[in-house]
Specification:
Blueprint lengths: L3 E13 L5 E9 L2 E7 L1 H4 L3 E8 L7 H9 L5 E7 L12 E2 L9 E7 L5 E2 L1 H5 L37 E2 L4 E13 L4 E5 L9 E6 L4
Antiparallel strand pairs: 1-2, 1-12, 2-11, 3-4, 3-6, 4-5, 7-10, 7-12, 8-9, 10-11
Length: about 210
């Protein structure tokens, strides 16, 4: 990983290329991000850079984080993420990183949290088939049917597809192409969909080559 940014998802739209072909894109507001901490192998056992995005009122920051920002003389940030960049020496504490570190046509990986959909049944969560809606099935046609064993082993094995919480989990979409960059407004348009709702926090990094 050579570069990365923290931002938020604005929404989806479409743009046209030189040939008039329509391209569905997701618009992201990325940065500006501030380097809030540099971790070294000597002090921390590994090298990484901590970036901050979005300002927050000082009275809304707890004491440990307030001390963290005050120690480095940095305005408190709402979101903090750690990046294991290949060359930490290229970054300085307090430096501001903007969207222009990326280029049009470059491939990126987008990391976000998917939309939470609450408790869902097996049909919505795992795409189970419905029961027959006739011959006495009653009002339970969306039930999952038999899922357990008999007296032996008398339990449900781990990993069984059952009803439960759906969504609200970390998702990574790889190799998204950058279609357009608006450095003045810190906006970047990437081809395809990015996980998460509007205004959801998104982290982008340069694509990991296989």
């Amino acid at each position: 990983m050579k570069k990365g940014l923290i931002g938020k998802k604005i929404g989806m739209t479409q743009v046209f290329d030189e040939t008039g072909k329509v391209i569905p894109v997701t618009v992201l507001e990325m940065g500006p991000c501030t380097v809030t901490q540099l971790k070294t192998a000597e002090n921390d056992g590994y090298e990484a850079a901590q970036l901050g995005f979005g300002e927050i009122a000082p009275n809304h920051v707890n004491k440990p984080y307030a001390g963290h920002f005050k120690k480095n003389d940095i305005i408190p940030k709402r979101y903090l993420r750690e990046f294991k960049f290949e060359n930490i020496s290229e970054y300085e504490l307090g430096a501001v990183i903007k969207v222009d570190v990326f280029n049009v046509g470059e491939k990126i990986d987008a990391h976000g949290t998917s939309k939470g959909k609450g408790t869902a049944g097996v049909i919505k969560r795992w795409n189970f088939s419905r029961l027959k809606e006739s011959h006495g099935s009653g009002p339970v046609v969306r039930r999952g049917g038999s899922t357990g064993a008999c007296a032996d082993p008398a339990r449900i094995f781990k990993g069984k597809k059952l009803a439960g919480h759906l969504g609200s989990e970390k998702v990574t979409v790889q190799n998204l192409e950058i279609v357009k960059i608006d450095a003045e407004n810190n906006l970047i348009a990437v081809k395809g969909a990015v996980p998460g709702p509007k205004q959801g926090v998104v982290v982008i990094t340069d694509a990991v080559k296989a």
